[in-house]
Design goal:
By secondary structure, the protein is α/β, with parallel strands linked by helices. 49% of the residues lie in helices and 14% in strands. The chain is built from ten helices and nine strands. The protein has helices spanning 27-41, 63-68, 70-73, 110-118, 139-151, 168-181, 197-213, 225-248, 253-301, 309-312, and strands spanning 16-21, 45-50, 52-53, 82-83, 95-101, 103-104, 107-108, 127-134, 155-163. The strands form three sheets. It has a five-stranded parallel β-sheet with strand order 2-1-5-8-9, sandwiched between helices. A two-stranded antiparallel sheet has the order 3-4. Strands 6-7 form a two-stranded antiparallel sheet. β6 and β7 form a beta hairpin. α1 packs parallel to α7 and α8 (225-248) packs antiparallel against α9. It is globular and about 60 Å long. The two termini are 15 Å apart. The model is unreliable at 1-11 (pLDDT under 50).
């Protein structure tokens, strides 16, 4: 039987968690703080470990670097060197690992992929809750992270996803403006870029329920079937197109630039045409389409609803 944290007697150790995180904009830290605030209020000990690449990625992104990182971002074998944190990489028995990460081109960010592949000791034999913050498409990245966690020997517990819940056209404009210029504030009829207060409150409620029940809630990562289907399809295309761009690099910078420009053009067409077509397929498929997509994602990402507190108590 799983014991809730607020039922632990005074002579028992406090439940503990360690948050590994990498964020250029600071948004992911905001989301992770929203998740852990209720845990702190319930007596958890939280340790924060930033993941720092030896060569920093820029923010805001120069447009050439923004698209230039694409081939490596979608390459499962591409890694970057990380600066070892004080005390080294690794966690202690009894600590829940909260792995907080961004999404780059429908894949986990390069620093987080590098952490899991080069330093599996961080999650080996540990319960892990992965926390992703992005515009709206997190599915392919979460599937890759879950596979990496299993390969590293983690007892993967669950996925928590925080997204910008506004209209897709709105978030596309505000997110690109933020990433390329560093400007997050509202402009024209657009609101502030990034994850809103209501979504942060939802993540806080997830943290509260996780602390009280000892389980990662089933609804911690809501799945939107049309977005998930588009994400999974695009994720496959991105990985194959990344191979094309990497192959073009052998023929010089011009060939690489042409291949990247072709990718950007195809991406634009896919956004304008592809998602509406998937939406039509979802309408035609009805509830069966939604159940099929959600079931596929759930099977791939986690053992959602599994106990976290029981597993991390020494």
């Amino acid at each position: 039987m799983t014991t809730a944290p607020d039922a632990v007697s005074a002579d028992q150790p406090h439940p503990r968690a360690v948050v590994y995180w990498y964020s250029q904009t600071g948004q992911l830290r905001e989301v992770a703080e929203a998740l852990t605030a209720p845990l702190l209020a319930q007596g958890w000990d939280i340790r924060w470990v930033p993941v720092k690449p030896r060569v920093e990625f820029p923010f805001p992104w120069p447009i050439r670097r923004f698209f230039g990182v694409f081939p490596a971002a979608v390459d499962p074998e591409s890694l970057v060197d990380l600066i070892e944190p004080a005390g080294g990489f690794g966690t202690e028995p009894g600590q829940l690992v909260i792995l907080a990460y961004q999404v780059w081109y429908l894949a986990p960010s390069l620093p987080i992929r590098s952490l899991l592949k080069a330093h599996p000791e961080v999650v080996c034999n540990r319960s892990v809750v992965s926390l992703v913050a992005c515009r709206n498409m997190w599915y392919s990245a979460a599937i890759e992270v879950s596979a990496l966690l299993r390969s590293a020997g983690a007892r993967h517990v669950g996925v928590i996803a925080a997204t910008d819940t506004r209209l897709q056209a709105t978030t596309l404009v505000t997110t690109l403006r933020w990433l390329l210029t560093g400007r997050r504030e509202p402009f024209l009829w657009f609101g502030r870029a990034g994850i809103g207060d209501a979504e942060l409150a939802r993540i806080g409620d997830v943290g509260r329920r996780m602390g009280e029940s000892g389980r990662c809630p089933q609804d911690a990562a809501p799945i939107v079937p049309t977005l998930a289907a588009g994400d999974l399809l695009a994720g496959t295309v991105f990985r194959r197109w990344g191979e094309t761009v990497r192959s073009a690099q052998r023929y010089g910078t011009i060939a690489q630039a042409v291949s990247l420009a072709t990718f950007v053009l195809g991406l634009t067409i896919a956004i304008v045409v592809g998602l509406p077509l998937i939406g039509c397929a979802a309408l035609a498929g009805g509830a069966r389409f939604g159940a099929m997509v959600e079931g596929f994602v759930r099977r791939r990402i986690s053992s959602v609803g599994a106990a976290v507190y029981e597993a991390v108590t020494p």
